[in-house]
């Protein structure tokens, strides 16, 4: 007896999952209709309905005379100001923000990290690596560094889901702001490319920042590699205002 094939909903979900995972990358052309039917065990009418649904969702585009292509996701517009929050940046664009812990350790500060944090070379710092997602699509890999003597329990609290802002507050730092931001591009390395679902050699945007307390003392340094084809940065210039007017980045 001939197989009835998958439902159009199951076919839609399978193709959608392959787009989300990067197995079907942006701008890639889908195989022919008969090949798709074979790959996804779908009848032709079910396949066509699944593709139409994915096109309506903005995941596919049809170019007449050329075929069906995976649509490139719209750029995340990441606004950088004195007070920048990962979650608020994404939520304001209707995106779901989430994070994943990759590694954590206490390490001796090298000359660069020591200078940026105002510490002696060799002082112990928390080094924490995390991956950031927008709607489950990875957009950034971050590394943060904090003085382990000033924030001894920081790594444990981050594992519990406590935000950096809350940790600072528990140490009497009611507010803080970004002192400087440095941005440059380079090719993704062998570790970054698969974690960000990039092709080898694709560019990443490196963003380095230093945060300071009200007295101007450095309290944190972070560096992040952002998927260059998914994010654009807007620098916001605002008039001077008091430290207490806004909250901060909880990444």
UniProtKB/TrEMBL annotation:
SMART domains: HTH_GNTR (SM00345), UTRA (SM00866). InterPro entries: Bact_HTH_transcr_reg, Chorismate_lyase_/UTRA_dom_sf, CP_lyase_PhnF, Tscrpt_reg_HTH_GntR, UTRA, WH-like_DNA-bd_sf, WH_DNA-bd_sf. One of its GO terms (molecular function) is DNA binding. CDD domains: WHTH_GntR. Residues 1-27 are annotated as: Disordered. Keywords: DNA-binding, Transcription, Transcription regulation. This is Phosphonate metabolism transcriptional regulator PhnF. It comes from Devosia insulae DS-56.
């Amino acid at each position: 007896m001939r197989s009835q094939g998958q439902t159009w909903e199951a076919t839609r979900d399978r193709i959608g999952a392959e787009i989300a995972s990067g197995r079907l990358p942006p701008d890639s052309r889908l195989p022919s209709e008969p090949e798709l039917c074979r790959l996804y065990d779908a009848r032709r009418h079910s396949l066509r309905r699944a593709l139409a649904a994915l096109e309506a969702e903005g995941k596919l585009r049809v170019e007449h005379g050329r075929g069906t292509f995976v649509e490139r996701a719209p750029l995340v517009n990441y606004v950088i100001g004195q007070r920048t929050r990962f979650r608020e940046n994404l939520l304001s664009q209707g995106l779901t923000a989430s994070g994943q812990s990759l590694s954590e350790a206490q390490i001796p500060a090298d000359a660069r990290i020591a200078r940026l944090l105002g510490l002696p070379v060799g002082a112990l710092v928390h080094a924490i690596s995390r991956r950031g997602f927008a709607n489950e699509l990875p957009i950034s890999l971050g590394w943060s560094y904090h003085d382990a003597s000033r924030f001894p329990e920081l790594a444990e609290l981050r594992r519990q889901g406590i935000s950096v802002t809350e940790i600072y507050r528990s140490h009497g730092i009611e507010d803080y702001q970004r002192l400087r931001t440095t941005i440059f591009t380079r090719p993704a390395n062998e570790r970054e490319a698969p974690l960000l679902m990039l092709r080898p050699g694709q560019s990443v945007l490196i963003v380095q920042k230093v945060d300071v307390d009200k007295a101007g003392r450095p309290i944190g340094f972070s560096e992040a590699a952002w998927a260059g084809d998914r994010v654009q940065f807007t620098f916001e210039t605002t008039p001077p205002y008091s430290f207490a007017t806004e909250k901060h980045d909880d990444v």
